[in-house]
Amino acid sequence: MEVDDDNSPSTSAAVPDGETMVPTANSTPVQPPAVPPAVVPPTIAPLPAVVPPIAPIPAVRPPVFKPPVPQNGEVKAVDSDSDHEDDGRATAGEYEISEESRLVRERQEKAMQELLMKRRAAALAVPTNDMAVRTRLRRLGEPITLFGEREMERRERLRMIMAKLDSEGQLEKLMKAHEEEEGAISAKAEDIEEDIEYPFYTEGPKELLDARIDIAKYSIVKAAARLQRARRKRDDPDEDMDAEIDWALRQAGNLVLDCSEIGDDRPLSGCSFSRDGKLLATCSLSGVAKLWSMPRVSKVSALKGHTERATDVTFSPVHDLLATASADRTAKLWSSDGSLLKTFGGHLDRLARIAFHPSGKYLGTTSFDKTWRLWDIDTGMELLLQEGHSRSVYGIAFHQDGSLVASCGLDALARVWDLRTGRSILALEGHVKPVLGASFSPNGYHLATGGEDNTCRIWDLRKKKSLYIIPAHSNLISQVKFEPQEGYYLVTSSYDMTAKVWSGRDFKPVKSLPGHEAKVTASDISADGRYIVTVSHDRTIKLWTAGNIEQENYMDWTEG
């Protein structure tokens, strides 16, 4: 029997050391060949396999990618089932919308709706007249006003109501129904009132009509006399206009300070010469007006009656009367001996300037209530309350014919009114700041205005435009005055502490009158043109005269 060579090594290799192979029953003992025994290295028993311990589960889960959340708040479904199984608990907590986020989204949606509502409201046409706004609110069934609601707030409330109705599609239908109702009502009213004719003007009292007729008659005579005098000077060969103007300008160029007197304990605000030049009136912030004798400026009397500061004083061109204006909202009429004759009350705010009509029968006052008023001197009645300025009215001046009056105010506008008809015939725009003073030239067609833009403008009433702009002062111009006889020169007073004289022919500078130590508030020229007086916040009255006039006055004073 042959022995399988393949099985022998495996058999011997299968017997471990120290054990004896036992032959089987069928096996035949085989004698080992005579081969020297091989040296078998000791066999190292394999170590038992060591199973590594299982790593503990970490307490913090790794970050899980969150898909973007849709706008509608629903969580996007996960495609993989394993993802659902692994992240089931985490998904339920991570994709749930918190209460705070829901409130934030609600606020955002509400803000967006309000923005859209405001855009829609801005596109709607809303009435600007407060009465129309109230009427529209009444038609829409809303309260016409709320407690403490102002005009702009009421208009904005109407706008939002209309926008809300428009978004709901109800505005057009509702307004159409109201328009149909209003049309039916107006048609009935037209049927009833079709025979009634209303005047296109506001009717005034009979006294105003009489005053307009009187002013028209007076102005016709005065204008005819002025034109006749102008024609005579033009046609008479003996009349030399240039020579007269040159002489007057030389006299103005020789003006010197003749007298300076303390006028009051408080700053002075106005001054005026009497018609004969023998008296001078001043007023101050103390509310007291004073009369002074000329030419030595000696105090005659004090006129006390106003409860607030006095703002202006003026003498009547016809009578020995003077009028004062005050911040107590009244004007007062005084006699030259100091007795109070009348009080004119009616303005709603403090008065600014005051002026007599050339006829001496009427008095004009301006006020910070945006109106100027015309008063009857004899009766003390208010004849006219005239609006027309958008801001406070400050200055007033009457034309020498008596037919026109100029008003100027803080709206940087000067207006010329026809007293015979009550119409505003000119609106003079050019100043860029409030206009504080106005004066008509005796030639009848020039008007001077001065204001806070430091300029004096000369307006030609025939051309209805600005003829000349005088950069007169370095501060605001408080008052302007033409020489009252022929208008050969013009005097401006200013807050730069000076008064200046300008030519009435070419409006060039003639003379500067420095001397005050504070703002010059007012100035005036005597009827004969011999004196110029200025008053200031330094409480002084300064009288300016030409050199030869000063010598004549000195001789008269020494002889007396």
UniProtKB/TrEMBL annotation:
Keyword tags: Repeat, WD repeat
Database matches in InterPro entries: PRP4-like (IPR014906), PRP4-like_sf (IPR036285), WD40/YVTN_repeat-like_dom_sf (IPR015943), WD40_PAC1 (IPR020472), WD40_repeat_CS (IPR019775), WD40_repeat_dom_sf (IPR036322), WD40_rpt (IPR001680)
GO cellular component: U4/U6 x U5 tri-snRNP complex
Domain Pre-mRNA processing factor 4 (PRP4)-like: 128-181
SMART domains, sorted: SFM (SM00500), WD40 (SM00320)
Spans of repeat WD: 303-335, 344-385, 386-427, 428-469, 470-512, 513-544
Name of the protein this chain belongs to: Pre-mRNA processing factor 4 (PRP4)-like domain-containing protein
Origin species: Gossypium davidsonii (Davidson's cotton)
